[in-house]
Amino acid sequence: MKLFGITGGPGMGKSTAGQLLRQRGVEVADTDQIARHLTEPGQPALQEIVQRFGPLVLTEDGQLNRAELARLVFADAGARADLEAILHPRIRATWEAEAQGWRAAGRGIGAVLIPLLFETGAAPRFDAVICVVCSEASQWQRLRQRGWTDGQIGQRLAAQWPVERKTARADFVVWTDTNLETHAAQLERVVLQRPLTSSAASGAPV
Known about the structure:
Elements: E1 2-7, H1 14-23, E2 27-30, H2 31-38, H3 44-53, H4 66-73, H5 77-104, E3 109-113, E4 128-133, H6 136-145, H7 150-158, H8 163-169, E5 172-175, H9 180-192, H10 198-201
Helix pairs in contact: 2-5, 3-5
């Protein structure tokens, strides 16, 4: 099985890439979704988070208060490192187990969406790494549409490698500041090894 890692800055199109690949029959693991599962009530990771950060990171019904936790960790590099120490090993173990299952089932292609792929040293686990990118203006617009303030955007960008560093390390770059047809065509060319159509070729940097 060929395993692709997909990364990129926040708001640059990783989730959309995952959706497009699933629609084309590719197995996809999303580490953001894995993290959400790992922090559900009753999960050991949530218990460790509460022990480290206190009860204010829980809502009244025992759910993780993601906004409060984000406020704490993106303002303090040490706190963020503590959270990553709790979550990242569990996240990696989960997606690696998923990939192992795909291999055992005879699947030919799989992909894992990892925002901090390079930062966590995961690149050697993949046959190839794809970095999805868009313009800075589009990125900020998308993140503002999520309800993030400019201050929150700045904090989250500062917590990751600059996108230029990610693209320099990636095997392929997919441009997402375009329509879905072109986005999908670029992914098909890289992951499914299909040639670009004439209508999509002009927008594809891969």
